[in-house]
Write a structure and sequence with these properties.
six-stranded mixed β-sheet; about 190 residues; about 40% helix; 6 helices; RbsD-like fold; alpha/beta
Length: about 190
């Protein structure tokens, strides 16, 4: 027997023995062993704090290259993902979302993008009294790119085919308000 083949056979036997003598099973072809987007979301919400972002993106949203930006393809309905994210964040005591939408969405016509009117109506209902701010899409992409230099961002890509329908959630501290932060900063200023 060839020395190389013998070494390979012995190496495999040693590895099998190290694994407790059990052969390691491989996932069946076509089986996706990655965690579901819901479990990824739950883990990230626990991990994330203020200055992290969660984005619920339409199908054409670009895969950004910044290292801090993680994209997960959900293969799910856009509105179900928006609701699931808002529900998950609603149970978190440590963070709350500041909501942003693309300014362009509010000007997209049904003639150019069938379903745009219904999309706006559904998003208004889901976002409720969270008072989303609308900013130009390019500005939001640039904001995420800069945030991704220092902070983690989760992009949950959906099957939505209405342009500019992404929802951007900038996480803020859930137990500390902007007003409290301002009072703190004022109290730290040297007195004259």
């Amino acid at each position: 027997m060839n020395r190389v083949v013998l070494c390979l056979v012995l190496g495999c036997a040693v590895l099998a023995g190290a694994a407790g003598g059990r052969a390691r099973s491989q996932p069946a072809a076509g089986t996706d062993t990655r965690p579901s987007w819901r479990s990824v979301l739950a883990g990230r919400v626990k991990e994330y704090g203020h200055r992290n972002w969660v984005v619920i993106a339409d199908a054409a949203y670009p895969a950004q290259t910044r290292a801090g930006i993680e994209t997960v393809v959900t293969s799910a309905d856009h509105f179900q993902v928006v609701k699931a994210v808002l529900d998950e964040l609603g149970t978190a005591k440590h963070v709350r979302p500041n909501v942003y939408t693309d300014a362009e969405l509010w000007h997209v016509s049904d003639r150019d993008a069938p379903g745009a009117v219904e999309c706006r109506k559904e998003l208004k209902q889901l976002l409720g009294d969270r008072r989303p701010q609308s900013l130009p899409h390019a500005e939001l992409i640039e904001t995420l790119d800069k945030a991704g230099e220092k902070f983690k961002i989760l992009v949950l890509k959906t099957e939505m085919t209405v342009p500019y329908s992404s929802v951007f959630l900038e996480l803020d501290c859930g137990y500390w308000s902007a007003e409290a932060e301002q009072r703190l900063r004022e109290s730290m200023k040297p007195r004259k």
